């Protein structure tokens, strides 16, 4: 199929009505992101969404269909939702083109939560929702940072579906299949709109990929907040048969609530697919349950970390 001259223009990133760009400072870095806030009063809590490798914060504000956006959905349900560009992506990419390690990113994310709490109403506190590599970051942050209310992770497992050497040799069309699955899982216009979200994976981030299984086993017992894990029906990056799930959850010994769910009709990039709204509603329902079980204390729970200064 030919591509017109107009289609060859560099795609421009857009966002949904009610969503605005935001900049904040943490650990000496300026991070970019997208923010949506409830229109009718202060938030009940704040959802911080963390994207995967090779994507940007707009992953959570899909433009191919109005139902895709986590940001607009969460704001309508009374949450502030902030999707952050991880260190090495967006605004910070020019400053640190090689990116950061997971531990370094976790320190920046913890500081960013403090910055948000200093400059914006956050309600009861922070809930992390993350995808793929962002799921690794969310789990690392949960293990290193006290004060989080709950974590929801999709597209992140314990052991890879292919070995590290195989990942390096993966042909482009096979990598596409791993990331997306069947094309019919996505609304028309998805892949054109997604071009504005794609970004290079920083070298230091990529170099750590093979270390994740061991790192997860070290981190898992330190996670002491409610946790929900979701695997797409067509997830192939991670081993996710029942024995694999049992092995993964066996390390999460101190999470007070632990759920593992399957998302039907979805590929790895759940939040850009036709199943996005269903997944987001399930995640927000989980967060609702966590808020209810946490009691009626209206004071915000603040993460303990180094502080930054808001510049939004």
UniProtKB/TrEMBL annotation:
Domain AB hydrolase-1: 47-268
Hydrolase as UniProt keyword: yes
Short name of one Pfam family: Abhydrolase_6
InterPro entries membership: AB_hydrolase_1, AB_hydrolase_fold
UniProt KW keywords: Hydrolase, Plasmid
Highest taxon of source: Bacteria
Ligase in keyword set: no
Molecular function per GO: hydrolase activity
Entry protein name: Alpha/beta fold hydrolase
Species assigned in the record: Streptomyces sp. NBC_00008
Lineage per the UniProt record: Bacteria, Bacillati, Actinomycetota, Actinomycetes, Kitasatosporales
């Amino acid at each position: 199929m030919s591509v017109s001259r107009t289609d060859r223009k560099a795609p421009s990133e857009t966002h949904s009505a009610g969503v605005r760009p935001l900049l904040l400072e943490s650990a000496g870095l300026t991070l970019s992101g997208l923010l949506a806030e409830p229109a009718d009063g202060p938030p009940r809590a704040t959802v911080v969404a963390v994207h995967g490798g090779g994507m940007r914060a707009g992953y959570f504000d899909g433009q191919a269909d109005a139902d895709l956006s986590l940001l607009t959905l969460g704001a309508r349900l009374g949450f502030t939702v902030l999707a952050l560009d991880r260190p090495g992506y967006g605004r910070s990419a020019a400053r640190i083109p090689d990116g950061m390690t997971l531990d370094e990113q976790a320190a920046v994310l913890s500081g960013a939560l403090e910055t948000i709490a200093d400059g914006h109403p956050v309600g009861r506190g922070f809930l992390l929702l993350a995808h793929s590599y962002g799921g690794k970051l969310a789990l690392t942050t949960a293990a290193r940072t006290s004060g989080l209310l709950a974590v929801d992770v999709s597209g992140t497992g314990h052991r890879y579906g292919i070995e590290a050497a195989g990942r390096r040799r993966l042909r482009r069309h096979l990598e596409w299949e791993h990331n997306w699955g069947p094309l019919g899982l996505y609304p028309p216009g998805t892949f054109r709109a997604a071009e504005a979200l794609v970004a290079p994976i920083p070298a230091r981030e990529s170099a750590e990929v093979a270390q994740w299984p061991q790192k997860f086993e070290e981190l898992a017992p330190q996670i002491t907040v409610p946790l929900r894990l979701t695997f797409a029906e067509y997830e192939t990056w991670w081993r996710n048969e029942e024995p694999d799930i049992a092995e993964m959850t066996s390390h999460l010994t101190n999470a007070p609530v632990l759920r593992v769910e399957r998302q039907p009709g979805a590929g790895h990039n759940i939040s850009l697919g036709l199943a996005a709204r269903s997944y987001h509603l399930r995640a927000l329902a989980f967060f609702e349950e966590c808020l209810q079980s946490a009691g009626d204390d209206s004071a915000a729970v603040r993460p303990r970390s180094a502080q930054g200064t808001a510049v939004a």
